[in-house]
Design goal:
Distance between the termini: 33 Å
Largest sheet: 3 strands, antiparallel
Shape: globular
Strand order of the largest sheet: 1-3-2
């Protein structure tokens, strides 16, 4: 940060004042002015706040550590105020807080290959439109018309500043369900058991109609025309990577591209959601988010991954998954879900509090562990109130001798401390010690030792018609498929960072709850929406829809993403059929996979699970991909891989080239590509010595396959 520090000395002084809780009103306004419209300043702000939070991990104050706290705890505390967060539902100074969406890095890889192909096809009926039309006559599927949107700008196509969807109502915080009502956990549980707030929800067609209508309204309001519908090849590759984490095989691609079935996209989504690769993909995604890849968490990661695989295999409701990891007890041998908290319950559960809030609630509370947030209504006491649910938990190490081998074994278990009653304590920036009671969303639970706080928290997290865990999951899922969520970043939701499409996020979250937290059904809504079915290419009539450059996402196209390292590895295996040559056990294959992945992962060794898990196109990564053992085996024409079998087949030269492109890029070569490739192959063969024509022919096709697999197009999800 040294260069940035030199450029922004005033900003650093203001940030220091903010973190020490001595920022005046005038200084707060000045701080916002410095951050507005300055990418470098915003980047420095985010880095400073993250570093500030990391340095404060272990500064929690224990009630057992000081006599002062012990004396305080004997006093009769004042009645606990049930904090109303009504104000949180209304964005303040909306025009001056757009910078909090964050700094979005420019894509490291240029999508050159994508822009040189054949022209995109004209607009076609989207899968969601087809599905909606098949049930249009149903009485419960009347499209809901959103409020009238006011166009942005002064009659020109391109407004000066992109607006969020105009005319949408502010998102109502579910925290008001309990903030002014002395509700108890028992009352909430009773409400849930009666089924008052749980229903089957609207039909898929109704929800898709609403999604499409809302997005079209935002396009009209911003005077843009969406990109054309993606052709079958582009959509096929994208939906495979997003749902199952790998590209389709040649056979799968050939069948889909040749099919004339009008419902083939809907049928494919259903098929992919039932495949074993779907389970592996999503359990890996969430294991990465929950525990990362740090070697000292390997045992916890393995257990948690097994728990997640079982959960995704059963399509277990998301609220049940969250409840299991939040309330887990015992060792990983007894309870696989305990792996999450075992990895983070250290340092008086400060990491567990911050990471659970970020992943499951979509709120980044790391900053507020040591001071009130300078730009929103998040308070320091709210962090410690949430922490008090976890602080009752401890890791217990037990050692015993294996009766068979005689070796000493060690077991780490998650337990609830029997003597952990009353409030916990924290120290504010003025040095005053204050109590924190277990309160979530304005609801205070019993704080005596007989209450398992994490079990009660698990109940509170799923209370109401639209719990925060539902909204956070919908936002993160939307980002997974589109490349950007309704907020950026997805784990910093709140009035300071308003959603781009608040009514759409609100409706999807409510329908997600009404569906029983059915993850597969949510993914269907997204994958079959009109927006997801469009090409990723920008056009001259929607070029302002460019969140990669910091603009508000309008979802008039699907934004280009880089593959994760898992997607790169899995797709290489699919494209080359290398895995089919291996007769090793599952464990051996998994070990080989992990060794390969570690080449591309840089862990930052923090308790935030910070690591680079994408193929970012660095020189080192490129060299490993281009020249590694896997690539060498994949393009060998002397072994029975896909490429080896293709070379020895009786296909025509043109068909072999078509198969190479289809295998690597899930599309056939363009006319321009085909002409250039055939010319190159012919020249290489003509220039070879007598008797080496066959060898030169094979090497020429090998070069082509190598180029396809190492192209930017291969490592992009588009």
């Amino acid at each position: 940060m040294s260069a940035a520090q030199n450029r922004h000395p005033e900003l650093l002084k203001l940030l220091e004042a903010a973190c020490e809780d001595r920022l005046s009103g005038e200084q707060s306004v000045r701080l916002e002015e410095l951050l507005t419209g300055n990418d470098s300043a915003r980047k420095l702000y985010r880095e400073y706040m993250v570093l500030h939070g990391l340095l404060y991990w272990d500064t929690a104050v224990s009630s057992e550590s000081t006599a002062e706290l012990a004396q305080f705890s004997q006093q009769s505390p004042e009645p606990v105020k049930r904090y109303s967060t009504q104000a949180l539902s209304t964005p303040r100074r909306l025009q001056r807080t757009s910078w909090t969406v964050g700094v979005v890095a420019v894509m490291a890889l240029i999508v050159g290959v994508l822009l040189t192909g054949d022209p995109a096809p004209g607009p076609q009926p989207s899968p969601s439109e087809t599905l909606a039309n098949t049930v249009e006559s149903s009485t419960d599927q009347t499209p809901q018309t959103p409020p009238e949107k006011t166009p942005v700008g002064n009659g020109t196509r391109k407004p000066a500043i992109i607006q969020a969807v105009v005319g949408l109502k502010p998102q109502k915080s579910n925290s008001t369900d309990h903030a002014d009502n002395p509700a108890t956990v028992a009352e909430i549980s009773a409400e849930q058991s009666t089924g008052k707030t749980i229903s089957a929800g609207a039909s898929n067609a109704t929800i898709l109609t609403f999604v499409n209508t809302e997005l079209r309204s935002s396009w009209d309001a911003n005077q843009i025309v969406p990109s054309p519908q993606a052709d079958d090849a582009e959509w096929l590759r994208r939906v495979h990577l997003d749902l199952i984490g790998q590209i389709p095989t040649v056979d799968e691609a050939s069948r889909f591209l040749a099919s004339k079935d009008a419902l083939k996209r809907e049928k494919l989504v259903e098929t992919l959601l039932q495949r074993s690769e779907y389970i592996t993909n999503w359990s890996t995604i969430w294991a990465n988010l929950m525990v990362g890849r740090t070697p000292d968490r390997a045992e916890y990661r393995e257990a948690l991954t097994k728990f997640l695989r079982d959960s995704f295999r059963e399509n277990r409701p998301w609220d049940k998954i969250v409840a299991s990891v939040i309330s887990a007890e015992g060792s990983t041998q007894d309870n696989l879900a305990s792996g999450f908290l075992l990895a983070h319950v250290n340092n008086q559960a400060v990491p567990a509090t911050a990471i659970a809030s970020r992943l499951f609630l979509g709120t980044n509370v790391q900053c507020t562990q040591c001071h009130d947030h300078p730009f929103n209504d998040s308070k320091q006491n709210q962090f410690w109130e949430l922490n008090s649910f976890f602080k009752q938990t401890a890791k217990v190490v037990e050692r015993h001798r294996d009766p068979t081998t005689g070796n000493m074994l060690q077991t780490v278990s998650l337990v609830t401390k029997p003597d952990a009653d009353g409030p916990t304590f924290f120290e504010n920036r003025q040095g005053r010690v204050q109590p924190a009671f277990p309160i979530y969303n304005g609801v205070k639970i019993n704080d005596d030792a007989s209450t398992n706080r994490r079990v009660e928290l698990a109940k509170l997290l799923s209370a109401g018609e639209k719990p925060q865990i539902a909204e956070a999951f919908v936002n993160r899922a939307w980002k997974h498929f589109f490349g950007f969520g309704f907020t950026n970043p997805v784990d910093d939701m709140g009035p300071h960072n308003p959603a781009s499409h608040p009514e759409l996020l609100d409706r999807l979250a409510r329908e997600f709850v009404a569906s029983g937290y059915d993850q597969k059904r949510l993914m269907k809504w997204i994958c079959l929406s009109d927006a997801y079915g469009r090409t990723s290419r920008l056009t001259d009539v929607n070029d302002i829809d460019n969140p990669e450059l910091g603009e508000i996402p309008l979802f008039s196209r699907v934004y280009v993403k880089t593959m994760s390292v898992e997607q790169v590895y899995n797709s290489l295996l699919v494209a080359t059929s290398v895995l089919e040559l291996q007769n090793a056990s599952w464990e051996a294959v998994e070990e080989q996979r992990n060794q390969w992945l570690q080449q591309f992962i840089h862990a930052y060794e923090t308790e935030e699970n910070n690591e680079d898990t994408h193929f970012s196109g660095t020189i080192a990564q490129a060299l490993m991909l281009m020249n590694g053992d896997l690539m060498e085996e994949a393009i060998s024409y002397k072994s029975p891989t896909f490429f080896g079998n293709l070379i020895s087949s009786n296909m025509s030269d043109q068909e072999k080239i078509r198969q190479l492109a289809l295998s690597a890029l899930t599309r056939y070569p363009t006319d321009r590509e085909m002409t250039m490739i055939r010319k190159m192959v012919a020249q290489n063969v003509a220039n070879s010595r007598n008797g080496q024509q066959r060898e030169r022919y094979a090497q020429s096709l090998q070069d082509i396959f190598w180029a396809y697999l190492n192209s930017s197009e291969f490592v992009l999800v588009h």
